[in-house]
Design goal:
Length: 173
């Protein structure tokens, strides 16, 4: 069985898979009593279809996965709303063979802190995030019809991947 260590999320460590959604390293665009606003911290590219906002209700589960999916035409945003999430991702290679999953040890697992998120590039392998500690929710932004028209799902039940949370890697940035 392949075992992966959870990594801290940073712009550098996540770069092979997409971009991090976080407050930018600049002054807010506007400030008010109890709030700060940064406009357009990241831009989602579309192809004319409207964006859908999905809600994931997550509960603690076994720290392993045995499936992954990817979208060859669509970027996807995953945002941790109230608690940390663990998101597994694999490199976006092999566009000419949509169902060819990379070696399982090439996947990586990132801790997405509450209030932060990621934009997955086209073709990045991923699955539903896991609750890092307790029940939580995540928002998913994805173009309309992606689950019907632009998804490749691969299952590997015989060779699941374990996630080791006992020795989380720290940010190397």
């Amino acid at each position: 069985m392949t075992t992966l260590t959870v990594e801290a999320l940073s712009s550098r460590s996540f770069a092979p898979f997409g971009r991090v959604i976080e407050p930018p390293g600049r002054d807010p665009d506007a400030i008010g009593p109890g709030w700060r606003w940064w406009a357009e911290t990241q831009l989602l590219e579309g192809d004319g279809r409207p964006w859908g906002v999905g809600l994931l209700d997550l509960e603690p589960a076994e720290m392993r996965f045995d499936w992954a999916e990817r979208h060859l035409r669509t970027v996807e945003a995953v945002v941790a709303t109230g608690a940390d999430l663990l998101l597994y991702v694999g490199p976006p290679n092999g566009f000419e063979e949509p169902a060819r999953v990379p070696a399982l040890d090439r996947f990586r697992v990132f801790r997405i802190p509450a209030g932060r998120g990621v934009l997955l590039d086209r073709g990045v392998w991923h699955g539903a995030p896991l609750a890092a500690e307790g029940r939580c929710t995540a928002l998913v932004l994805i173009l309309e019809g992606t689950g019907r028209d632009d998804v490749t799902v691969v299952r590997f039940e015989d060779t699941p991947v374990a996630i080791d949370t006992s020795t989380e890697a720290t940010d190397k940035e």
